[in-house]
Amino acid sequence: MTENPFFEPWGTPFELPPFDRIRPEHFPPAFDRFMAEEAAEIDAIARSPDVPTFANTIEALERSGRQLGRVSRVFFNLNSSHTSDALETIARDYAARFAQHRMRVALNADLFDRVAALYAERDALALAEDQHRLLERRHLGFVRHGAMLSPEAKARMTAISERLATLHTLFGQNVLHDEKEWQLVLSEHDLDGLPPFFRSAASQAARERGLADFYVVTLARSSIEPFLTFSARRDLRKAAYEAWTGRGAQDGAYDNRPLIREILTLRAEQARLLGYENYAAYKLDDSMAKDIAAVEGLLHAVWTPATRKAAAERNELQAAARTDGLNEPIAPWDWRYYAENVRRTRYALDEAEVKPYFVLENMMRAAFATAERLFGIRFSERSDLPLYHPDVRAYEVRDRDGNSVGLFLHDNYARPEKRSGAWMSSYRGAESFDGAVMPIVVNNNNFARGNPTLLSFDEAETLFHEFGHGLHGLLSRARYPSQSGTSVRQDFVEFPSQIFEHWMAAPETLRRFAVHVETGEPMPEALLQRLLAARYFNQGFATVEYTAAALLDLEFHTCATPDRIDVAEFERAILAKIGMPAEISVRHRPAHFQHLFAGSGYAAGYYAYLWAETLDADGFEAFTAAGSAFDPALAARLKDIYEAGDTRDPMTLYIAFRGRAPTIAALLRHRGLAEDV
Ligand SMILES: [Zn+2]
Fold first, then answer.
1. Which among 285, 368, 502, 514 could bridge 357 via Cys, Cβ 3.0 to 4.6 Å?
2. Contacts of 107-113 spanning 24+ positions with Cβ under 8 A
3. CA 167 – CA 271 distance, rounded (Å)
4. Strand intervals (E) in 49-153
């Protein structure tokens, strides 16, 4: 038996996980040992003969489970970015066990008694602001897991959590299965309309699959979206579109539809046990929005102008299609193609002309330079560290004085063994209450590798978005681990990421970093102006496909009879009720809506992106009004939000930055939906 690296000190630079030595079989024994270890730590806190104090209870909880946390972060990161049959099997085996373990902690009655005793006298404990909030949130966490329920109800809560954990895991694995299973192989005569950057990436994908001389389209967003945008072959677009929107909804062993019904039924029961009418009410009770009415208010305020704008866009697209010889109504697989067509003629903008200016490497430098100018941190590459895949690059992050403050990993390319989408995560969070701990943050994207890799405007925004989350993790100055970095409310966590997107589109950034891949020349000023002018175009479509998904999420999680849901019928009925345009599909259809069903983080929470957009649009307008995207005083106040983590209430943080509460007006302007645009 070889040594298990999880049972030894790592001794690596930055205490980075020793990826070169970690193998799948190391995880199960480490999980088993460290779960037992945490259970013993919790037991010791719960049964302590000493009177409960903040230090011996709340701080002791912050200190517990460190080893389990360390190995779990490695596991879940690898299982998302670089999975294998072995890791997927372990994920399935352990999902329920982890859930059971967490519930055993959350429902430990002796432990809750101590927390509740402290909570009752919280104002007399002379706590600092972050400690006061930590105690309140710890207490609320126990209550929301069922700590105040009867023993029978607690047992049921545990059983539900275990089953849900397994269902979430299966849901994600089924989507990945359907994505891996499908590919569209093209030969030379199928390439009508496809520009060079796409051919290059599709040819690379074909070589990776042993299909030299062909071109492969996959279901990764970075492959399928440009295919639907450019392919002149309507038959191929239709086939690709149907495979893309059909993920997770194929009859057989990988069908996610029965899983959805069971997940919704269990969540509804969970909410009822805790005294809520439905899961959405339960979920939103602990959010910045606070209740269903506030979320519905926002979604409906956007829905009406968005559908109006989408209808105008459709008419333009239909006219372009007629000119192209298509006499029937345009279908969802036509939208992107004709939108590109109109964009080309109306704004003299051609995605294939724009893309050579968005070289991945340059956009990474742009993100680093923006962080340096706004927040005073520098990124320098470290090529001497053992990482889990050759695609991954590591950067040491230093502050103004040259002190190391963290490590940043960038994993940018799509791979068959990586889940789809883009996300930030961490191998270690920042904290300081037992000595300073440096964060190790990772950004994952799914860009189609080219030679060199070129991004669309949207993909460059995604790069900045995830980097904004990354900064939230890297800049954190929270003292306690559970308040660190992105551990904020779900509808606030997208604020630091979304506001950072605005700097990608800032003219200063584009002038400096949007340089041509071959000539190195900056983007011509006229092209830059056309690009910025075209940003309102197709926002009706983008807002409709997103908002419909958010409304569907809310309907699923307020449904009174989830056990009787026919997923396809439910989706049809809701979309009909809200007046979904026939030519637009919801951004994520239920059977692959991983935000909702591959975990519960965004369940009844998909609205969070739009909620945060009211903040980021309003927040960035402060920079515009100040006359500089890099206004130092505003940047310093914004940095406070990135540093604060969950140590303060989000609205309090926002008002401290902006000087007032946000309004929806800037959001409508930003999407070109305001009446006067
Ligand atoms: Zn995000």
1. 514
2. 107/145, 107/146, 107/147, 107/154, 107/157, 107/158, 108/42, 108/46, 109/147, 110/46, 110/47, 111/42, 111/45, 111/46, 111/57, 111/142, 112/142, 112/147, 112/148
3. 18
4. none
| pLDDT attached to residue 124 | 97
Catalytic positions, written as ranges: 466
The CA 222 to ligand 1 mean position distance, Å, reads 17
DSSP state of 409: E
Both tokens assigned to 115:
């927390």
Q: Side-chain half-sphere of 290: how many Cα atoms within 13 Å?
A: 5
Instruction: Please tell me what DSSP assigns to residue 353.
Output: H
Helices and strands (DSSP H and E) totals, the chain: 27, 7
CB 539 within 8 A of CB 379: no
How many residues are given for the chain? 677
Query: Which regions of the chain are under pLDDT 50?
Result: 676-677
Q: In the numeric block, which tokens belong to residue 615?
A: 């903040």
CA torsion through residues 69, 75, 78, 79, sign: negative
pLDDT tens per residue across span 553-603: 999 999 999 999 999 999 999 999 999 999 999 999 999 999 999 999 999
Distance of CA 467 from the midpoint of ligand 1 (Å): 9
Residue 186 · residue 214 · CB < 8 Å: yes
Q: How far apart are CA 407 and CA 399, in angstroms?
A: 12
Relative to beta strand 440-447, strand 404-413 is parallel
Distance 571 CA to ligand 1 centre (A): 25
Give the number of other CB atoms < 10 A from CB of residue 121.
9
How many Å separate Cα 502 from the centre of its chain? 17
Beta carbons of 527 and 642 less than 8 angstroms apart: no
Query: For residue 221, what are the contacts with CB-CB under 8 A and spacing of at least 6?
Result: 420, 421, 446
Query: b or e along 442-464 (b: 16 or more beta carbons within 10 Å of the residue's beta carbon)?
Result: bbbbbbbbbeebbbbbbbbbbbb
CA of 357 to the centre of ligand 1 (A): 24
Owner of token pair 């600092």: 128
Alpha-carbon Rg for the chain in angstroms: 25
What is the distance in A from the centroid of ligand 1 to the CA of 49?
Answer: 44
Task: Tell how far the Cα of 497 is from the centroid of ligand 1, in angstroms.
Answer: 6
| Pick from 412, 408, 402: nearest CA to 426 | 408
Per the listing, tokens 């340089």 go with 515
Chain segment 38-77, per-residue pLDDT in tens: 999 999 999 999 999 999 999 999 999 999 999 999 999 9
Q: How far apart are CA 571 and CA 549, in angstroms?
A: 10
Residue pair 547/302 in contact by the 8 Å Cβ criterion: yes
CA dist 152 and 216 (Å) reads 54
Contact between 613 and 539 under an 8 Å Cβ cutoff? The reply is no
Spatial distance between the Cα atoms of 266 and 50, rounded to a whole number of angstroms: 39
- Ligand 1 centroid to residue 615 C-alpha, Å: 14
At which residue do the structure tokens 């400096």 appear?
A: 512
**What CA–CA distance (Å, rounded) separates 98 from 73?**
13
User: What's the confidence (pLDDT) of residue 677?
Assistant: 39
pLDDT at 1: 53
